[in-house]
Design goal:
The complex is a heterodimer of chains A (about 400) and B (about 280). In chain A, about 30% of the residues lie in helices and about 20% in strands. Chain A contains 14 helices and 17 strands. In chain B, α4 crosses α11. Chain B starts with 9 loop residues before the first helix and ends with a helix. Classes of the chains: A alpha/beta (about 400), B mainly alpha (about 280). Chain B: It is a multi-pass membrane protein.
Chain lengths: ~400, ~280
């Protein structure tokens, strides 16, 4: 999002269609700057036409919708000693589609997932998976979910095939059936050749694919993916994304955690931004984006970043800009960080405001269009190149939110 | 080819995903055997781990037979008849520690999380691992007995007596292992677990009737030997191998085994569920 005066390089870059999606290309082509009109359109789109509709589903999974809930969390708390890993979370995840839990390391994402997968007992609050309580009806929950943990949940000493046969047997397949299922999965995940090798010899991408294959030996109704692409190169990451989309197309609900803005943006139908054990923003990517720029924002007399944001916000016409109070130097709106589709929650004088950072980072041409990453100069990269680290994570940036 | 295998095919993927009805849940026995199979696969892929069940028993048997035989029983041959059942019990009891160590290793890996999220009979994870260990114990027992016979061990109870003794040993070791599985969840590292286990096992094995007749000991030590479960095990095994076992001798070992499982089985499973 470039809220500064657009440079010639910006104009050139933004006018290139970033995607084959016809719904988005007009925006790319026509807009040199993101003006108020587009922001409003983005807001409308965020409400009316979610990504889920683009995928051919008819239900808009909002919390108050009648659609069945895959996950229902109320007042969930988990403390480890002094650490408040999860500090009172309420969350409703509709069945079907991908739900993203976005946040920096240590935000509590994994703890939430581990509680939902019956690996951890909550200290307080309730969590239900398809109506079954995770702490009292663990077996019922385990029958419907599957977990791919942050670290490969496969046996490194065994071969890929043995891992899959083992799980198939444990899930009730006959000997022959288990072998057949293992072959089928190895084929589908491009691991047939590697199937006879010990997992410890696998590359990160292969291991992750095997891990996901192991999670769908029996297709789960709800799949937990804990940072499925962390540490993967772009090619492997795209493969994992394809796998996830294929699963969802088949009716599995996916709860995905990630630290990457672009990943949540690319995959998720709804996103909850989590930090320090609390959810600080929730909605469809479009809704999150639409919330950007509203509220009260103070310009920072010491840093350029905030000023750019306020410029942007003023242009959107929904923001009163107050002068005076500084957000503090080094506050979260430093250039180089981009919005979670705009979801940056800031506190100002006790009031929560949303702002959107400027400079290089993600650029969102429209409510739900595929975002692109602008890295300054002529560097555009749809997927995020991961080279400079600017677009990588919300870490630090969300941290500073609370300072 | 940077990453070896080809990209996954999305169409094939779709097929693999959709074409998978959920089979019915496996029985407790089937699940346990499957986990036992996993333990065997691990032996197959990491045969080095058999070091402890091969080298140690041989070393112990040779060492103690020739070191103490002459002094304690007049001749190595006579000593071997008494010592072999004891050494056998001692080595196997010692290698039960590795059950806990392996489990402790496992917990650190993600694969344990996967097992815990699968809707199987949950104790099967542990029971299966113990079944796999039973194979290791059998290997160790076979080695000790074959070597013993080569050195001049002549059990009066014959093959049946020896097999019965080994069977009893396996039952006892399986039961004893539950202590280590429980500890495996409590201790943070395999090293600390090893330390604690040794602390328990050294007195249990050495302060017993394995090496010497307890009547030569001071009375307080003799009293400990008399209640030491390992002593009971060794007495019963000697009896079975030499054809003099009484139902009482065997019965008390079986009773001890049941007691161990009854206490440490549920404790292990409690820790298994509570484990973070």
């Amino acid at each position: 999002m470039t809220d500064r005066q657009p440079s010639p390089a910006d104009r050139t870059s933004r006018s290139q269609p970033g995607t084959a999606d016809p719904q988005e290309s007009d925006v790319h082509a026509s807009s040199a700057t993101l003006d108020e009109r587009q922001w409003k359109r983005g807001q409308d789109r965020g409400r009316g036409r979610g990504r889920e509709q683009e995928r051919g589903q008819t239900t808009e999974p909002t919390a108050d919708d009648a659609a069945p809930l895959a996950i229902e969390i109320a007042g969930l708390v988990k403390h480890f000693g002094e650490t408040k890993a999860v500090d009172g979370i309420d969350l409703q995840v509709p069945a079907g589609g991908i739900y993203g839990l976005l946040g920096p390391n240590g935000a509590g994402k994994t703890t939430v997932i581990r509680m939902l997968a019956t690996l951890l007992q909550p200290d307080a609050g309730t969590a239900r998976v398809f109506g079954d309580d995770v702490s009292t009806e663990g077996n019922a929950v385990r029958r419907r979910v599957s977990l791919t943990g942050q670290f490969a949940s496969v046996d490194e000493d065994l071969t890929g095939r043995e891992n899959l046969v083992l799980l198939a047997r444990l899930l009730g397949y006959s000997r022959a059936g288990a072998r057949e299922r293992a072959s089928e999965l190895l084929d589908a995940f491009g691991l047939t050749e590697a199937g006879t090798r010990q997992v410890k010899t696998y590359s990160g991408g292969m291991r992750r694919r095997l891990d996901i294959a192991a999670s769908i030996v029996v297709t789960p109704e709800l799949l937990f993916l804990d940072e499925p692409t962390t540490g993967l190169d772009p090619r492997n990451r795209n493969q994992v994304w394809d796998i996830i989309r294929a699963l969802v197309a088949n009716g599995t609900t996916v709860l995905l955690t990630t630290q990457y803005l672009d990943e949540a943006d690319q995959l998720a139908d709804r996103i909850a931004v989590i930090d320090e054990g609390r959810i600080i923003a929730e909605g469809t990517p479009g809704e999150l984006k639409a919330s950007v720029g509203s509220g009260v924002l103070s310009p920072d007399p010491t840093g350029g970043g905030t000023r750019r944001v306020t410029t942007r916000a003023r242009r959107a016409g929904r923001t009163r800009v107050r002068s005076g109070g500084a957000l503090g130097s080094g506050y979260g709106l430093r250039s180089g960080y981009a919005g979670v589709r705009g979801a940056v929650a800031l506190e100002y004088r006790g009031e929560r405001v949303h702002a959107r950072p400027a400079e290089s980072g993600r650029v969102f041409p429209d409510g739900d269009g595929p975002a692109r990453t602008y890295r300054g100069g002529n560097c555009w990269d749809r997927w995020g190149c991961r080279g400079c680290g600017n677009c990588r994570s919300t870490r630090g940036w969300l941290r500073r939110r609370s300072q | 080819m940077s990453d070896g295998p080809p990209d996954p095919d999305v169409d094939q993927l779709q097929l693999a995903v959709s074409d998978s009805p959920r089979p019915s849940r496996p029985s407790a026995v089937s699940a346990s055997l499957t986990f036992g199979w996993r333990a065997l696969l691990k032996i197959k892929h990491v045969p080095e781990q058999l070091f402890d069940v091969t080298v140690f028993p041989i070393m112990f048997l040779l060492l103690f037979t020739y070191l103490f035989g002459g002094a304690l029983a007049g001749s190595t041959d006579a000593y071997l008849q008494e010592l072999l059942p004891g050494i056998l019990a001692m080595t196997v009891v010692f290698i039960t520690i590795y059950t806990g160590v392996t489990l402790n290793d496992d917990i650190d890996e993600g694969v344990f999380d996967r097992f815990r999220t699968i809707p199987v009979w949950q104790p099967s994870v542990i029971v299966g691992a113990l079944l796999g260990d039973a194979v290791r114990y059998t290997i160790a027992s076979t080695l000790v007995i074959v070597l013993g016979v080569a050195l001049g061990f002549r059990p009066a109870g014959g093959l049946v007596g020896v097999l019965a003794a080994v069977a009893l040993l396996l039952v006892f070791s399986f039961s004893l292992s539950w202590i280590w599985t429980a500890l495996g969840f409590v201790m943070r590292t395999p090293e600390s677990l090893m330390g604690v286990s040794m602390l328990i096992l050294f007195p249990l094995t050495f302060v017993s009737n394995v090496f010497v007749d307890p009547r030569t000991m001071p009375s307080w030590l003799e009293a400990f030997v008399a209640i030491n479960p390992v002593s009971h095990l060794v007495t019963a095994m000697r009896g079975l191998m030499h054809g003099t076992a009484t139902a009482g001798e065997v019965g008390i070992v079986l009773l001890l085994s049941v007691a161990l499982v009854a206490v440490f089985g549920p404790l292990t499973m409690y820790l298994f569920r509570a484990q973070q």
